[in-house]
Amino acid sequence: MLSVLSYGRLVARAVLGGLSQTDGRDYSLVTASYGFGKDFRKGILKKGMCYGDDACFVARHRSADVLGVADGVGGWRDYGVDPSQFSATLMKTCERLVKEGRFTPSNPVGILTSGYYELLQNKVPLLGSSTACIVVLDRRSHRLHTCNLGDSGFLVVRGGEVVHRSDEQQHYFNTPFQLSIAPPGAEGVVLSDSPEAADSSSFDVQLGDIILTATDGLFDNMPDYMILQELKKLKCFLFLFLIL
């Protein structure tokens, strides 16, 4: 699989430090994304935030910051279908819904469900499958609301340790839960899960937490200790960047 990384470090608006969890001001995310396809010769970044067969988005609304990643199922390429089209369209649709305010911060499954059903009703033919993970930072309550379908996922790192992580969803080996749109007549043949089957969680976050969302291309190839080493470098760099 390919890897997509969205990295967010929690900071308070217009404040670089000195706030506690009980501070009444809103939180927001400082974000960055990075990814690459299996074949570097074909270029790294497609149009939009799409890397190889994977895609991601970062969207902001007055009530929340939202991160999302999706991993297009590469097996569709054997049937002449570009796997990136489904994941990219799904993420772009979810991003638009957030920017339009058509979501509830405490219900990221609702974002995924609405985005997926828009794809099903789209008049432009679209085929493919994808895993998906969406996390929503409620700025006012300082809570993170998450949903994960398949083997993409998230980590929350605090003080150099993983304090929260998503649960992987697999039907069997190398067959994760996934959203799909099948060709007419093949709906019962192509594996497809409901977005409501996504695993959900909600928990408090703190200033300085690192929220990482990624596809299995990261989690299958880098153990936690390697991820933590790289995030430590990013955190130090970001802190220096912010205070300069």
Key descriptive features of the protein:
4 helices; 244 residues; 14 strands; alpha+beta; disordered C terminus
Number of strands: 14
**In terms of per-residue confidence, which ranges show pLDDT below 50 for 5 or more consecutive residues?**
11-22, 240-244
The SS-based structural class is alpha+beta
What is the helical fraction, as a range of percent?
Answer: 10-25%
Describe this structure in words.
With 244 residues, this protein is α+β, with helices and mostly antiparallel strands. The protein has helices spanning 83-99, 108-121, 216-219, 224-243; strands at 3-12, 27-36, 50-51, 54-61, 64-72, 128-138, 143-149, 153-158, 161-165, 170-172, 175-176, 179-181, 199-204, 210-214. α1 packs across α2. It is globular, with a radius of gyration of 18 Å. Mean pLDDT is 84; it is low at 11-22 and 240-244.
Structure at a glance:
With 244 residues, this protein is α+β, with helices and mostly antiparallel strands.
Task: Describe the secondary structure blueprint for this structure.
Layout: E1 3-12, E2 27-36, E3 50-51, E4 54-61, E5 64-72, H1 83-99, H2 108-121, E6 128-138, E7 143-149, E8 153-158, E9 161-165, E10 170-172, E11 175-176, E12 179-181, E13 199-204, E14 210-214, H3 216-219, H4 224-243
Antiparallel strand pairs: 1-2, 1-14, 3-4, 4-5, 5-6, 6-7, 6-12, 7-13, 8-9, 8-14, 10-11
